[in-house]
Amino acid sequence: MVNTSIKTTKSQEIFAAAQNLMPGGVSSPVRAFKSVGGQPIVFDHVKGAYIWDVDGNQYIDYVGTWGPAICGHAHPDVIAALHDALEKGTSFGAPCALENVLAEMVIAAVPSMEMVRFVNSGTEACMAVLRLMRAFTKREKVIKFEGCYHGHADMFLVKAGSGVATLGLPDSPGVPKSVTSNTLTAPYNDLEAVKALFEENPGEIAGVILEPVVGNAGFITPDAGFLEGLRELTQEHGALLVFDEVMTGFRIAYGGAQEKFGITPDLTTLGKIIGGGLPVGAYGGRRDIMSMVAPAGPMYQAGTLSGNPLAMTAGIKTLELLRKPGTYEYLDKITKQLADGLLAIAKETGHEACGGQISAMFGMFFCPGPVHNYEDAKKADTNKFGRFHRGMLERGIYLAPSQFEAGFTSFAHTEADIQQTLQAARDVMASL
């Protein structure tokens, strides 16, 4: 049944109180619904493909805690493994055997990884990999792409995506120009712009970092030859290629975007899924580069909770579930039904829209498209998306509260969930 009678009295009360306790009432900016209007719902619990808010409303979830819930929320196998792990303690601050197990699984899955270091978030992973790029090459400049988001560290908050794009913010106050002066930017999918940066900075660029499939400026896929061109350019100039697979890792293929597209970077950052919903991140790559990391080498990076037994346990169980036969075929099937259906409904109801999916990652823009980069994405009708988001929420469908964020499915989603979502979309788009 499509829910059109959602009441959010308790959510409103809790959010009103939160605004006196936390900046904007949230612990992360996109949660505040600034770009879509209205107030956020306050979650009570999650299970499978569903969310329940504090008012008792049920929603079909396409955010999946921003990616990790690829098995569905609170998968019973993950929860059971965590219960056993809790009996042994929440954190050791010392080596545990579980780190070896997850490390072996990650290295076996991700083509670029010969060694891995666990951290506590995608931001930490990207901070560390930037330092490692510079340490290994003895160069200071890096290239990132407009609209790509690599966490909230100072040096990456230059023409960034995710919440920065959602809120329409300029480069963040509090970030000194001296910190970002070595961060060069280019439009995504523009090889000529990257070539020009290498030519203008000969022998100075440590490497190129990017989301191989953009998820933080909306869902944007690489043009044919783009990733291949970056691989050739970096090798030609003695620079490193880094794939930020915090979103795409284990989601668009078991081995991530690098497996999907057949392009092996020098280094990779991971997060989200490899912790099964617990805070975690990782970076890794070629053995000769990773040997620079302390204590094996001179580049320092540390973390008290890194490799903690709970995150390792949840990650191990999640990857075991993902290795079951047919998992990615099913994810691709249902996500294609959803993405194709949304575009067909938009066309039927007279709206210009573009988008698509790769495996369990999807997105849609209200614009004629195609969208090749962040500048194209900014031409989309964000006001219409806000009205669409609100209409879907009122019908029990929880989408990312920003047109500049990708959506995610899980293998807990059923075809009935997809059909219910498409029916809700048809009702909403007909009224926009």
Describe it.
This protein is an alpha/beta fold. It has 15 helices and 14 strands. The strands form three sheets. The protein has a seven-stranded mixed sheet, sandwiched between helices. A four-stranded mixed sheet has the order 1-2-3-13. Helix 2 (76-86) runs antiparallel to helix 11 (309-322), helix 3 runs parallel beside helix 11 and helix 12 (327-348) packs parallel to helix 15. Residues 166-170 have low confidence and may be disordered.
SSE map:
Elements: H1 9-18, E1 43-47, E2 50-53, E3 58-61, H2 76-86, H3 97-109, E4 115-119, H4 122-137, E5 141-145, H5 163-166, H6 177-180, E6 183-186, H7 191-200, E7 205-210, H8 226-236, E8 240-244, H9 256-261, E9 267-271, E10 281-285, H10 287-290, H11 309-322, H12 327-348, E11 354-358, E12 361-365, H13 374-377, H14 382-394, E13 397-398, E14 407-408, H15 415-431
Parallel strand pairs: 3-13, 5-6, 5-7, 7-8, 8-9
Antiparallel strand pairs: 1-2, 2-3, 4-10, 9-10, 11-12, 12-14
Helix pairs in contact: 2-11, 3-11, 7-8, 12-15
